[in-house]
Amino acid sequence: MTTYILRRLLIVVPTLLGVLLAVFLMVRLAPGDPAQLLAGEFATPETLADIRERFGLDQPWYAQLGIYIVNVFQGDLGESVRTRQPVTHELANFFPNTLKLTLAAMLVALLIGIPAGIISAIRPGTAIDLLVMLGALIGVSMPVFWFGLMAILIFSVQLGWFPVAGTGTIWHLVLPAITLGTSTAAILARMTRSAMLEVLSQDYIRTARAKGLAGRVVVFKHAMRNALIPVVTITGLQFGGLLEGAVITETVFAWPGIGRLLVDSILARDYPVVQGAVLLIAVAFILINLVVDLLYGVIDPRIRYD
Length: 306
Prior knowledge:
Layout: H1 2-29, H2 34-39, H3 45-54, H4 61-72, H5 87-122, H6 127-141, H7 144-158, H8 171-200, H9 203-210, H10 215-252, H11 258-267, H12 271-299
Helix pairs in contact: 1-12, 5-6, 5-8, 5-10, 5-12, 6-8, 7-8, 8-10, 10-11, 10-12, 11-12
């Protein structure tokens, strides 16, 4: 187990280097001058030159990349062009809100998706099964931004049940979490149904039923555990995807998280914050995948890490 974890962690280094290179090049290929945005429209050439020198923008791109990589591995993500605050400070202020939203959205997805998939699998071909699959199809197909705007219009503007945007109370979290978790719930429902149908057709399930075991015992004790591995896999991938997908949801609901910070930083050409935010999301995604791989051994003791 320890050897496996160390080997996976070693793979993180080239992966992060690839992410750093891709983001570094993409933000610099975009049009616009961050020094001009920071100094203002009527800034003098001397002021622009001072800003470029301070943030290293006057150096060739490969020199900037080398300096940035060295600083990252020393724990220095640079300084925000807009706020003049360390990028680590900016991320520390915004990431907890994104994590809170992502966990709430995943909870919504699990509470809806897995039970719906199980019910659909044990009643295949029935009206309930068709209704669940129709709902899953709608959930997967529906754009997140449209669903968020409709949720605001109906439940905030017309009914007044929840706040329109922002944060502060648990009620501010409800609509963003439902909006972000709906598509994931649909994916989990379809995956759970598929995995359960495959397991329920196995010989040992028929044997358990032939012994007279209750239906709920067969489903939850024998079938569910064996169907969990693909469900756990897709859950881990979707959790990482929620961190990325929070960009749209946070923008729609004015939620102060990494996604909104990333959008504002892109518009302001704040290179250090953009690079730091993407790097943080990449690290979180990698660690989530590692945790998912380790959970396989907990679910199925037959799995060994060589």
